[in-house]
């Protein structure tokens, strides 16, 4: 009932590639069409075969998850679903959206919200779980009577998610992780990497990782005034150079969260090149 097709777009960001999932047999829902690559489109069409594709669902608006939507839509009459916060992303400057990997061409037919249920004539149903943080329109999808959870980029297998302000929000991200604690799914199907067989252990690891990173930032700032770039140099010791700009954005997301809690201040407005310090240090 669930099939995974890995797009041939492996990289430091996408790991082994973006996962596209198919749910159903005679009636198909496609989750995250993936990048606009001919070989990926051919693989999806071959996997669907003679079945009827009726629904295209996206976990969030990053281009490696949505770019192929338009081409698939041209070949079918499938309805495209995305969280209604996708509209909020359109209020940002297009160049900023492109720079953050948000698909400027993505068009949604039907907006969904937290706890909505998407059903098929075949009998399967998919429940929407809104998990903002990586992007504000990010959702996970629970299916097979709540036994499996498709997690997009909220939880990946082999890496942690990049949180890039203003489109990403660390406060929301951690809250969304906690929202998934205690759920009954027995396996996670991430947007990158293979299945995760111990969901609660992975969710706890993700929370602990964020709390550890937070403490590292606070420790580095005690008695010092530092920029996000300087914090990355101190904290991310063995990080490959191409990933340092992404780590810098995630550190900024942590700093904004810490500022909102009164644990950190900045000498100017919060941005990538500002300096930050602990007022109680």
Structure description:
By secondary structure, the chain is α/β, with parallel strands linked by helices. It has two domains: 2-197, Metallo-beta-lactamase, Chain A, CATH 3.60.15; 210-277, Arc Repressor Mutant, subunit A (Orthogonal Bundle). The chain is 32% helix and 20% strand. The protein is built from nine helices and 13 strands. The protein has helices at residues 38-48, 63-66, 69-75, 86-89, 94-99, 170-180, 199-221, 228-235, 244-260; strands at 2-6, 19-23, 27-31, 52-57, 79-83, 110-112, 117-119, 125-130, 139-143, 148-152, 187-190, 265-266, 276-277. The strands form three sheets. Strands 1-2-3-4-5-6 form a six-stranded mixed β-sheet, covered by helices on one side. It has a five-stranded mixed β-sheet with strand order 7-8-9-10-11, with no helix packed on it. Helix 6 (170-180) links the parallel strand 10 (148-152) and strand 11 (187-190). Helix 8 (228-235) crosses helix 9. The longest helix is centred in the last third of the chain and has 23 residues, at 199-221. It is elongated. The mean pLDDT is 95.
State the main characteristics.
single chain; 281 residues; alpha/beta; Metallo-beta-lactamase, Chain A; Arc Repressor Mutant, subunit A; 6-stranded mixed β-sheet; 5-stranded mixed β-sheet; 9 helices; 13 strands
């Amino acid at each position: 009932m669930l099939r995974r097709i890995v797009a041939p777009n492996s990289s430091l960001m996408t790991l082994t590639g973006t996962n596209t999932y198919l749910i159903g047999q005679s009636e198909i829902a496609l989750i995250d069409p993936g990048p606009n690559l001919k070989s990926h489109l051919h693989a999806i069409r071959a996997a669907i075969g003679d079945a009827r594709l009726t629904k295209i669902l996206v976990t969030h608006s990053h281009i490696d998850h949505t770019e192929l939507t338009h081409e698939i839509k041209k070949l079918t009459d499938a309805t495209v679903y995305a969280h209604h916060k996708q509209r909020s992303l359109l209020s940002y400057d297009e160049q900023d959206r492109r720079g953050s990997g948000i698909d400027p061409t993505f068009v949604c037919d039907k907006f969904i919200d937290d706890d909505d249920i998407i059903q098929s004539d075949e009998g399967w149903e998919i429940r929407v779980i809104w998990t903002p943080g990586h992007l504000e329109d990010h959702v996970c999808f629970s299916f097979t009577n709540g036994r499996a959870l498709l997690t997009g980029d909220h939880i990946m297998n082999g890496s942690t998610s990049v949180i890039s302000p203003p489109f990403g929000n660390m406060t929301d991200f951690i809250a969304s992780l906690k929202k998934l604690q205690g759920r009954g799914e027995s396996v996670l199907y991430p947007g990158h990497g293979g299945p995760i067989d111990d969901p609660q252990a992975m969710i706890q690891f993700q929370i602990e990782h964020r709390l550890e990173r937070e403490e590292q930032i606070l420790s580095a700032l005690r008695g010092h005034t530092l920029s996000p770039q300087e914090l990355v140099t101190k904290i991310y010791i063995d990080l490959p150079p191409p990933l340092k700009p992404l780590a810098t954005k995630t550190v900024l997301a942590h700093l904004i969260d810490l500022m909102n809690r009164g644990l950190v201040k900045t000498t100017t407005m919060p941005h990538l090149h500002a300096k930050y310090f602990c007022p109680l240090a």
